[in-house]
Design brief:
single chain, mainly beta, 9 strands
């Protein structure tokens, strides 16, 4: 059985407010910036732009990033919990998410460059 791993979405109110999706994988937090609120509706696809990986400890961060620093602005946890990978490859990650707001199977599909789609799977 696959072990549960940490999952978080942080709302980052910066120059361009967005949501940061982070999935713990192999000791790091794989990360994507999602410009619009993640959807629970399987008919709505969200762009997810892959960004640099973070330390797993950062998944618990809430607070202010000071002016003058990269990403300056407030960070609040929007959703958190655990996830189990159903399948992972270079083009697709299928995740069973057990968060407070998001629950169920979600898929990240790699389009090109750093662009992915984040989609709630049909039940």
């Amino acid at each position: 059985m696959t072990k549960k791993k940490k999952y978080v979405i942080q709302f980052h109110k910066s120059k361009r407010p967005h949501f940061d999706l982070r999935l713990e994988l192999e000791g790091i937090a794989r990360s994507w910036a999602i410009p619009k609120e993640p959807s629970k509706d399987e008919n709505i696809k969200r762009l997810a732009i892959q960004v640099e990986d973070h330390d797993v400890d950062y998944m618990d961060f809430e607070g202010m990033i000071p002016k003058g620093q990269y990403g300056a602005g407030s960070v609040k946890i929007w959703d958190k919990g655990y996830w189990k990978p159903e399948s992972i490859d270079d083009k697709k990650i299928v995740a069973i998410i057990e968060g407070k707001k998001l629950k169920g199977k979600f898929t990240l599909i790699h389009l090109k460059d750093k662009n992915w789609l984040f989609i709630k799977n049909k039940e």
